[in-house]
UniProtKB/TrEMBL annotation:
Belongs to the ABC-2 integral membrane protein family. Keywords: Antibiotic resistance, Cell membrane, Membrane, Transmembrane, Transmembrane helix, Transport. Pfam families: ABC2_membrane. This is Transport permease protein. The keyword Electron transport does not apply. It is found in: Cell membrane; Membrane. The keyword Ribonucleoprotein does not apply. The chain crosses the membrane at residues 32-52, 64-84, 105-134, 146-167, 179-196, 244-263. It is a multi-pass membrane protein. Residues 31-266 form the ABC transmembrane type-2 domain. The lineage of its organism: Bacteria, Bacillati, Actinomycetota, Actinomycetes, Micromonosporales. InterPro entries: ABC2_TM (IPR013525), ABC2_TM_bact-type (IPR047817), ABC_2_transport (IPR000412), Nod_factor_ABC_transporter (IPR051784).
Length: 271
C-alpha cells in the first residue's frame, strides 16, 4: 500500500497567503482604511488650500508638501499601523495561537510586510493622483528619478515596518498602543520637514530628526519631486542620496535586530 503525502506549501506560498489574509483584514477595518488612506489626502486639501505661495521660483508649496505626506504615509503604514495592530493581535491571543501551529514564524512577518507594501503603494498612488489633479503637482519625467523614488520608498517602508514590529512590544496592552505610538509619529512628522521646510526648523530639531528614518525618507523623495536647484537649500547643500541610503539601511538592520531580540508572541500576563 503506497502512502500519498501532500506536499507542504513552501515559505513563499504561505507568505503570500498570509499577506492576502492580512490585506483582507486591513480592508475590513473601516477606521484603519480611512485614517491610513484618506488622512494624507485630507492634509493636502488643508495645507494646499492655506499655503499657496511659491517656496522656490516656479515651485508651489504643495509640490514640497506632497513629498512630506508621501514620507509620512510610508511611516504611518509601516511603523504606526503595525505598532498599534500587533499589540491588539497579541492581546486577543492570536499570536499565541499562531505560535502554537506548525506555521513557520517567518510567514507571519512576510504577511505583514506584503500588507504594508500593498497599502503603502495604494496610498502613494492615491495621494499623487489627487495632488496632480487638484493642486498642480508635477511628476518627474526622468527614469533615474523614478528609480530613486523606488529605492527610497522601499528602504523607507522596510525600515518603518521593522521598527513598527519591534516597537509593538513596547505597549503593555492593545488599549495603550495608540497612546504610545501616535505621539511619536506626530513628533517625527513635525521635526522631519513634513509640514514645513526642514531648514526652517531650529538646528537642534534638525539634529534630532537626522537620527530617525523619516527625515531621510523625505530628503530622498525631495530629490525626486523638486528641482535640482533646491538641493542647495538642504542642510548639507545637496540631496546626500548616498547618506540617505546608508541611514535607511542602518535602520533596517537595527530594526531587524530589535525584532529578533524583543518581539513577543504572548502578553506579559501569559508568561
Amino acid at each position: 500500500m503506497t502512502e500519498i503525502t501532500a506536499a507542504r506549501p513552501g515559505l513563499l506560498t504561505l507568505g503570500l497567503r498570509q499577506g492576502r489574509s492580512e490585506l483582507t483584514r486591513f480592508l475590513r477595518s473601516r477606521e484603519a482604511v480611512v485614517f491610513t488612506m484618506l488622512f494624507p489626502v485630507l492634509m493636502i486639501v488643508i495645507f494646499g488650500s492655506i499655503f499657496t505661495w511659491e517656496i522656490y521660483p516656479g515651485v508651489q508649496f504643495s509640490q514640497y508638501f506632497v513629498v512630506g505626506m508621501i514620507g509620512a504615509g510610508l511611516m504611518a503604514t509601516g511603523f504606526q499601523n503595525l505598532a498599534i495592530q500587533i499589540p491588539s493581535e497579541r492581546d486577543r491571543g492570536e499570536l499565541k495561537r499562531l505560535r502554537g501551529t506548525p506555521m513557520p514564524p517567518a510567514v507571519y512577518f512576510i504577511g505583514k510586510v506584503l500588507m504594508v507594501l500593498a497599502v503603502a503603494a495604494a496610498e502613494t498612488v492615491l495621494l499623487l493622483v489627487f495632488a496632480v489633479a487638484f493642486y498642480g503637482v508635477t511628476l518627474p519625467t526622468e527614469v533615474t528619478k523614478w528609480l530613486t523614488f523606488a529605492w527610497v520608498s522601499l528602504l523607507g517602508v522596510a525600515s518603518c515596518t521593522l521598527c513598527g514590529v519591534a516597537f509593538s512590544s513596547v505597549a503593555r496592552t492593545a488599549r495603550s498602543a495608540p497612546a504610545v505610538a501616535t505621539p511619536i509619529a506626530l513628533v517625527l512628522q513635525f521635526i522631519s520637514g513634513v509640514f514645513i521646510k526642514f531648514t526652517q526648523l531650529p538646528d537642534w530639531m534638525q539634529q534630532i530628526a537626522a537620527l530617525f528614518p523619516l527625515k531621510w525618507i523625505c530628503q530622498g523623495l525631495r530629490s525626486v519631486f523638486l528641482p535640482a536647484g533646491m538641493a542647495a537649500e538642504e542642510p548639507a547643500g545637496s540631496w546626500e542620496l548616498d547618506r540617505v541610503a546608508m541611514v535607511l539601511v542602518a535602520w533596517c538592520l537595527l530594526g531587524l535586530v530589535l525584532c529578533l531580540t524583543t518581539f513577543r508572541w504572548t502578553t506579559k500576563r501569559d508568561g
